[in-house]
C-alpha cells in the first residue's frame, strides 16, 4: 500500500479577467472518481488543503450547468458524502512533508487557479516530491498547481517535461472563455513545459517519468489508474 496525498484547493471563488468574483471549488468528478480508483487499488489517500480549509465542490460540477449527467451527479455526490469526514478535516498543507508520501495528486476545478497555482508551500512540496522520485499527478485545472513550483531563481521545476492540462480550446468551448484570468495550457507553455493535448473532452493522460497529468474531467479515472500503475511499478 502506498500513501497518496490528495491536494485539493480550498478556494470557493476565482477573480475573473474583469475583476468580478466567480463561484468555484473542486470539480466533483475529479475528486470522487480519482479517490475511488486510488482507494480501490488499496492505497491510503489523505486530503490536504491550504490552511486545512474544508474544500467545497464547484456547484456546476454536480448539475447540468457543468454538462454533468444527472445519474453521474448523484453518484459523485453520494461518493463525496461518503468521504465527508475526510473533507471536513483535511491536513493543513503547511504541515505536510513531501518525504512522507509516495505520490501527490492534485484534482482540478477552477479553484486551484486561485490558491494552489500561487502557493509557495505547494511549490516547495511538489519540487521536493519530484526530486525524490515520488509520483506527481495533476488533473485538468489542477495542473495549474504545477505553476507554483518556480524557484527563487525563476526556474520552473517541470520545465521541459511533457504534460497535459485543461486545454485553451476546452476553456473557450466549455470553460470560462475570455473571462478566465489566464489559461492553464498557455501559462504552462510559457513556463517551459512541453504541453501535449488530445481532442477536446477526450480522456487524455500523459506520463513523463514520475509525472502523470490528465487533461480534463473525462480523464479523471484514467489518470488515477495511471498513478496506480506507476506506483505498482516501483
UniProtKB/TrEMBL annotation:
Domain DJ-1/PfpI: 29-228
Residues forming coiled coils: none
GO cellular component: cytoplasm
Keyword Acyltransferase attributed: no
InterPro entries: Class_I_gatase-like, DJ-1/PfpI, Prot/Nucl_acid_deglycase
Keyword set, alphabetical order: Glutamine amidotransferase, Lyase, Stress response, Transferase
GO molecular function list: glyoxalase III activity; transferase activity
Listed Gene3D superfamilies: 3.40.50.880
Top-level taxon: Bacteria
One Pfam family hit: DJ-1_PfpI
GO biological process, one term: methylglyoxal catabolic process to D-lactate via S-lactoyl-glutathione
UniProt keyword annotation of Chaperone present: no
Family statement drawn from the similarity comment of this UniProt entry: Belongs to the peptidase C56 family. HSP31-like subfamily.
Descriptive protein name: Type 1 glutamine amidotransferase domain-containing protein
